[in-house]
Design brief:
9 helices, about 70% helix, HEPN_RiboL-PSP, MAE_28990/MAE_18760 family HEPN-like nuclease
Length: about 250
Amino acid sequence: MADTSLGALSEFIDSLREVETLLAAAPSQPLGDGSVSRQSHNRDLVNAVNRSAMVMLVAHFEGFVKSALTELIDEISEAEPPTRRLPEGLLELHTRERIQEIFGTAGPDRIHKTRRLFSAYASLWDSDRTVNPRILSARVLTRQFTNARPEVLDSVFSILDVQDVLATMDAHVNQAIMDRGDSATRVKVSVKLEEIVNRRNKIAHGDKSEKPTRFEVEGHLSFLKDVAECLAQVLQQTINRCCSLR
């Protein structure tokens, strides 16, 4: 299978233009120009634009991760590889969901659900059986991704048997910074993600003191684009590993 880019990555990069368009809508004249009321209005407008762009940016990134995870499941379902090629964490997740459903049921219904579980999901653990696309669910996987915090990303990718995705992102993002010749110092992806999510949450919860500058939002945009490219590569490698005929 060719190593191609995920469609979710292309869609995410396209969505970043919306953030850039929003940032460009802020007043371009120096904030010190004009009357006091005009200066105050422009400051408020700049803050509103930057705050909105921050929320939009993180929403687009979180949407990208969910779309990319969905694309992974769709590719596996279409290829129908033998289950031995699937990450065991993914198999366990699907089985666990059904077991939890059974133990949440009382009386005779539990017997019926148990029978249905074993008749439908036992095949996931038969290494030579092809994957039943009706059993795999993107929703089961994407439900594990609740926000863009580093520990959440690490947990989701561990389900896919990807170990230490944060270290992989560190290497990719810092190499991208060097390749661009950016003057920025090395970044720790986990720290940066935590900062970005916290700032977004403060804005979303009405904290008026959170006032990112345009420069900061543009920096976050570049950072999240690098992170998205790394995650897309990791997921594409997982798809290739699961769906390869070799």
